[in-house]
Design brief:
This protein is of the alpha+beta class. It has six helices and ten strands, in the order βαββββββαββαβααα.
């Protein structure tokens, strides 16, 4: 879904039966550790390598059997992340934005949920035993939230990967709005060196 436009939740819910709904979530937790003893990790932010070779967020299609968007999302999380995802529930209060794409007709709802570091590490530890591991999910990754001294390694290089749907914009917006990354790093991304 290369072309996607931002829509309000109310508009998304009013789309006809020809539209499928999907939900994905950014899970994060504070991480006080330092890389190489000097680079603050700030937060652990989870993404996943998908079956299609792109990076995205855990989640997926909401089915007719799901009572709500969030029920579908929490079911997908148990399938993709395993039992540790049962320790928390992503709610409508965690909702952030929606994007609609034309061919096929999919509207993707995006959420962000703060966990304790223990909850997030339990997700990471249990993920290889999840139903979808090695199939739809090839592995969880943490997002580097810093730039190395060369100005490229870290978040700038991470953002050069291929992302599914609106995942790259969703990531950047959440990092900014939730204050997960230093503001000067985000502004430096918007101003490429030499410009
Ligand atoms: N932003 C926007 N759209 C996204 C995002 C995102 N961050 N992540 C995924 N999508 C789109 C995908 O392109 C797909 O069209 O949402 C739809 C569902 O998301 P997936 O996580 O890929 O779906 P999932 O339910 O986990 O199933 C994966 O299994 O049943 C098959 O064919 C089905 O391709 C699907 C696959
Ligand atoms: Mg999925």
């Amino acid at each position: 879904m290369a072309e996607h436009r931002r829509v309000e939740m109310a508009e998304a819910l009013a789309l006809g039966p020809g539209w499928r709904h999907a939900c994905h979530v950014l899970l994060y937790a504070p991480d006080p550790r330092m890389l190489f003893g000097r680079i603050p990790q700030r937060y652990a932010v989870l993404m996943q390598m998908r079956f299609d070779g792109r990076l995205g967020f855990p989640g997926g299609f909401v089915d007719a059997q799901d009572a709500s968007l969030e029920d579908g999302l929490n079911r997908e999380l148990r399938e993709e992340l395993g039992e540790a995802a049962s320790a928390f529930r992503v709610e409508r209060a965690d909702y952030r934005s929606s994007h609609a794409a034309g061919r096929p007709r999919v509207v993707a709802h995006f959420y962000a949920k703060g966990l304790t570091l223990e909850q997030l590490e339990a997700v990471e530890a249990g993920a290889p035993r999840a139903k979808d591991h090695g199939l739809e999910v090839l592995g969880l990754v943490r997002v580097p939230l810093y730039a190395l001294r060369d100005g490229v390694g870290g978040l700038p290089a991470f953002l050069e990967n291929s992302f599914i749907g609106a995942a790259r914009e969703q990531l950047l917006e959440a990092l900014q709005d939730l204050g997960l990354v230093a503001p000067d790093l985000l502004s430096s991304l918007k101003t490429p060196a030499g410009h």
